[in-house]
Amino acid sequence: MNEIATPSPAALDVPRAPALRRYGVPVLVFAAFALAPIAAAQGAEGYILSLLTRVMIFAIAAMSLDLILGYGALVSFGHAAFLGIGAYAVGILASHGIESALVQLLAALGASALFALVTGAISMRTKGVYFIMITLAFGQMLYFLATSLSAYGGDDGLTLPSRSLLFGANLLKGDHAFYYAVLGCLLGCYLLCRSVVASRFGRVLRGAKENAVRMQAIGFAPYRFQLGAYVLAGTLCGLAGFLLANQTEFVSPAYMTWQRSGELIVVVVLGGLASLHGAIIGAAAFLLLEEVLSGYTEHWKMIFGPLLVLVVLYARGGILGMMGGRHG
Amino acid sequence: MADAILRLEGLRKAYGALKVTDDVTLDVRPGELHAIIGPNGAGKTTLIHQVSGLAASDSGRILFDSADVTRLTMAQRVHRGLARSFQITSILPGFSALENVALAVQARSGSSFRLFGDASRERGLNEEAMSYLAQVGLGHRAIIPSGQLSHGEKRGLELAIALATRPMLLLLDEPLAGTGHEESERVVETLRGLKGRYTIVLIEHDMNAVFSLADRVSVLVYGRVIATGRPDEVRANPEVRAAYLGEEAA
Amino acid sequence: QGEKVRVGLMLTLSGPSAVLGQQARDGFNLAVKEMGGKLGGREVEVIVVDDELKPDVAVTKVKGLVERDKVDFVVGPIFSNVAGAIHKPVTDAGVFLLSPNAGPSVFAGKGCNPNFFAVSYQNDQNHEVAGKVAQNRGYKRVYLLTPNYQAGRDAMAGFKRHFKGEIVEESYVPLNNLDFQSELAKLAAAQPDAVFTFMPGGMGVNLVRQYRQAGLADKIPFLSAFTVDESTLPAQQDAAIGMLGGSNWAPNLDTPQNKAFVAAYEKEFNAVPGSYSMHAYDTAKLLDSAVKSVKDLSDKKAVREAIAKADFQSLRGDFKFGANGFPVQDFYLVKAAKRPDGKFQTEIVEKVFDDYADAYAKDCKPAS
Amino acid sequence: MLTVSNLQTSYGPAKVLFDISFEVRAGEVVTLLGRNGMGKTTTVGSIMGLLRPHGGEVVFEGRPLRGQPAYRIAQAGLGLVPEGRQVFPTLTVEENLVATAAARHGAPRWTLPRVYELFPRLKERRSNLGSQLSGGEQQMLAVGRALMTNPKLLILDEATEGLAPLIRAEIWDCLRRLKGDGQSILVIDKTIDALIPLADRHVVIEKGRVAWMGTSAELAADPSVKDRFLHV
Amino acid sequence: MSTTLLIIQTLNGLQFGIILFLIAAGLTLVFGVMDFINLAHGVQYMVGAYLAAAFTAMTGNFGLGLLLALPTALAFGLVLEVLIFRHLYDRDHLDQVLATFGVILFLNQAVKFVWGAAPLFVPVPEILSGSIEIAPGLLYPVYRLAIIAAGLGVAALLYGLVNHTRAGMLVRAGATNAPMVSALGVDIRRLFMLVFGFGAMLAGFAGAMVAPILSVEPGMGDNLLILAFVVIVIGGIGSVRGAFIAALAVGLVDTLGRSFASNILRLFLDSGAASQTGRALAPMLIYILMAAILFFRPSGLFPVRR
Ligand SMILES: Nc1ncnc2c1ncn2[C@@H]1O[C@H](COP(=O)(O)OP(=O)(O)OP(=O)(O)O)[C@@H](O)[C@H]1O
Ligand SMILES: Nc1ncnc2c1ncn2[C@@H]1O[C@H](COP(=O)(O)OP(=O)(O)OP(=O)(O)O)[C@@H](O)[C@H]1O
Ligand SMILES: [Mg+2]
Ligand SMILES: [Mg+2]
Q1: Is residue D173, in this structure, part of any structural domain at all?
Q2: Residues A170, A175, A181, CA angle at the centre, nearest 5°?
Q3: Does residue D16 line the site of ligand 2, with CB under 6 A?
Q4: Are residues B77 and B176 in the same domain?
Q5: Could you tell me the distance, in angstroms and rounded to a whole number, from the CA of residue A124 to the centre of ligand 2?
Q6: What's the total number of domains in chain D?
Q7: Residue A155 at interface with chain C, using a CB cutoff of 8 Å
Q8: What is the pLDDT of residue B45?
Q9: What residue spans define the domains of chain A?
Q10: A83 burial level (CB within 10 Å; 0-12, 13-18, 19+)
């Protein structure tokens, strides 16, 4: 055996992208979000903030999906259901006069986690495309349930009296305050997901994605880890739903159509799978492109569609792959 | 025999009308290297699947370390000390060789429901994993993504992963398949080194390896054990010659 | 001559219901064009955006209209769920929202808002027309058919407000259902005196054609709202002839302004205008009158009062606003017909309500 | 019949074949020998058009084949038993055999009954799916499948891996009979001793180059070759 | 709930199921057999309907229109295959999802660009219009019977094609290991291209067949695409037989559920509550059915063994 046969433990790390790439892109992304309001102050501030807030909310939703899709190969086609659960938690409580953000948030997260636990436990019995479709089924059931809730507006949805109250005060009312609250949530989710992915738990999750039988043969029960990840992802997406309701001050079944779930998948793949910040970039690219293109022509989808195709054909690994900043 | 570490009692498995394993009764003694040979399609791999828990048995019992493990999941059996390798290489191709092994170490050391802390920097896991890689001569390949290893190296990795679960009993399904002379000699040496420290059930078609390593040999034909005994006994058995060895071994 | 007037049109311009948005856009633009590109004598800039029928998209885009484009008025939307979403951001910003179609009940009663005007109707009213007609004609047993969503359920409630006979069956189909064969089988089996349906867009096209194919059109009277109109007739064609609907207008309404409008619209867009175009056209005229009478558009109170006066000649004839910002107007029973030139349109059969206000207006306590 | 000259192939940036030249004459059995990872399978892949060689030439019966799609090359008369079995998992045994069967060059020598005769085990498992075969059965199936295309030149890459000694002997026996019929064969295998009496000539590959070439007699006479290149 | 009604509704369910099958069959072929997730399958259905509408308007005859629409749909599928899809076969499923999603966006808008946003009109062909009495007092539209017949024909044809022809075997083989198939002398690319075109044509055929009874409008394929996925998943991906049975099951459950859910619930609940729950439940039924089937049979009813 030669001299590198037993490297020192410090050198045992898996090869990684250089630190600049690893941390550079996410730092840039967050810096851009943090500074955007300053730039926005020059123009239509409320509009730009609202647009970027929407981007960040969808980034949270997409990132939560990336956690199970990119790292666990669990393609959920019903992920928008959690957006709906989070939003309806706000809407339903508010319509009964409970406007405390804390209570609403707890309800949103709790309900999302519970829904994820129950449907996940059932869905996990299946694999691959069957998993895709059974999650769709649960998403659709919830969607139809929401449309039949006449007391809460049915298909028309319901308007919130105001944004959720923090400590009894309307602290989230201002566009700036809300923007930074959402940015805080995004950062929090990102750091949490980063940590989870690198942790022991995340490693098992990734392993189960590559070869579940092998994982069993070394003593893991992948089911429990995958279910755990599913619940976590659902809960985070519930947070996104909570924020979405507050941003639009409106709640509607339209938040949880299958098209929305599909868009979330598209956003994740577009940005670059299994990188977390890829989901943020994907959300930004998707929503901003939509906004910009639709400003030019009514037929903007005839430009947007082919763009997506080109990304797939010529940029493996989504936008991140195109930037060459992909790793992991 | 009371001192058997693994005892199979009347194990059966059928796929449709095909009885793949048929009333297999077998004892494996602690510390021995027990080879199972037999024609292609005799049910050897299936038997390993049954013992390791990958395939459910139709009937019969599996006693391991004096406990009935017939109904346990694969993961539970691993935790009790039963490890296996796969005939068709089964690794995590996107993970480095080291991480493949480190995961196996992780599986039995502490909870894996930890959401924080970078697992790939856990010294304890890495150092132990490294030692298993070194045992199979892959120390210098630790940080290569395992999908890029050569066929023979993958077979070695497969073995290292099994070792990392710190098994009492190793089930090895054709560890030599596809390895060249040089590499297969190395694997045989490794096995020789493991012998005595672990109880090993070895499936192989390489008769040189089998007869030089095994303490005892069982012969499986059409799902039934037709002979068990010391290598020279089995080699001389005319039934075995007719069904499996042919004249090559003569 | 003041500065430019800015108007944002927020309409559904993509997806299956895009026709409705297009009709409204065209109607509005036609009026502006006829007025020489001006509203109230001032230059006008019209910014059109597509809400994609997604409430959250609409919220962001409407903020763009209000804050980036600094519009004085938002005209829109087509659908009630979008109205629910954009109502607050627009009115809170002190901008006027004028709806050329959606007139949800939430904003007609307790939730009325001084900055919101429906230039169309309250959603229930066309259904009420159908219910009233059924009652007047003495139908005893009526079969109701609607998509299973909020607007559908509201429609049924609207119908029942004036109809006191027996409802044989309230049949709900999934939204975007396109095949009515099984409903029609049920319907035929029930043998009602009449059927009432609210089946907008492509659903209405299919229902009407299948109703005709099943041979029911000549047996059971077909009452409807938003089902047989100028947006669906091009696809329904002969199948719809003779089918009845409730409406506040029809292209053949006999006023000089209306005749000129229909002729101009057909010339410009090669299609018969529907009520969506008419409402949007009226909205432009309404804005014209309001802008003309105020000096300073930032004087919201003056603008509000000017709009509320509704000092313009509506294509519908009589038109005024109630205290809740919803119209008080006449309603008609209309019938689909083929014109001599081969095109299809709805035509007025009879007036059902005169100067009719909606049922929620009494709950509106204007704050200002 | 088959002439390979100066073949060069890379996987991405990694060059694996530097200079491979040899030929197989009609009716001959030729082996490719070499340790693990020396480029034998890569050579076969390059000949078959499964990989894209970037230099050199492959000529079969006077037709240049390099750069042609794989199916053209196969249609020209090359039949492959690939490394690692690669039977079609979702097809039954019988379907695996007949799906790509062909008789492009006159009356077929290999038909379903003949293949079943060669491998009775396959006949027993004829309606099993490919994925439900044992490793060895899959190997037999791969051989049978290649024979069913009635190739002029049969290429076997590790065709006896994982086979029981008895079956392995049978396959050698089968090759011997094929050779007797005048079948040209290119074999890669680890068990050289069985191959020496069977093959006419041997080509030893070392790190992407031909390191030694010669007849069975020459190989038997020169033990240093085995020692140096094959570590036997 | 009379028996006549039950029979009629059952026929309607069958007819709906048959349409679903026509779409699902192409999808299951392309997806199950070639392992390619083609979300654009729904727009191919839409394109078929538009082509039928356009050609019918042009020739004034639905039969001729259909005859022209089919090869055009095939050609259209082939063009898509060559331009886009063939570059995606060896890609990840998710890449395929993204790309075909882009195709959906484009085509949905493109038909609007070409034919306008308003629904198009296609008359029922003269000879197939009207109803026949299939039992005393039981009238049923001839055209719908024709759809059922056409669907059954296609089902039989497909089943034979996939399971009992060399082409079928080769396609299945190519799905798992395309290079190997070509190394055995088969031009797998061309074969895939044909399968794809054939699948597109089937979807187009379904679209053309429904054009006279349903309105032809942009986006008409989107919801059917989802239902088609439901069907092939219930049936077991890649199984034509499974798709057939599942399509009929979904068609029947949906149709009968919508008509009778409230009636059945009335046995347990009071009338108001029953119709309300029935209404809420009816649209969920097929999804409940799918979830239940996948719960007990995680790979569908007729899993293709791998
Ligand atoms: N999932 C399955 N369904 C049906 N038959 C199967 C299945 N798996 C294996 N078999 C059959 O069971 C028999 C035994 O297979 P097994 O893999 O155990 O053989 P083996 O002894 O390991 O052979 P080899 O030495 O060739 O690897 C074979 O005939 C095979 O075709
Ligand atoms: N897909 C691939 N990507 C990159 N390198 C490869 C790939 N396949 C093979 N190689 C490398 O090419 C070299 C030659 O491999 P090849 O498979 O041709 O060897 P071989 O002589 O057939 O060996 P064996 O006896 O193990 O089958 C090896 O070093 C191997 O690591
Ligand atoms: Mg085996
Ligand atoms: Mg090789």
Answers
A1: no
A2: 75
A3: yes
A4: yes
A5: 37
A6: 2
A7: yes
A8: 92
A9: 41-256
A10: buried
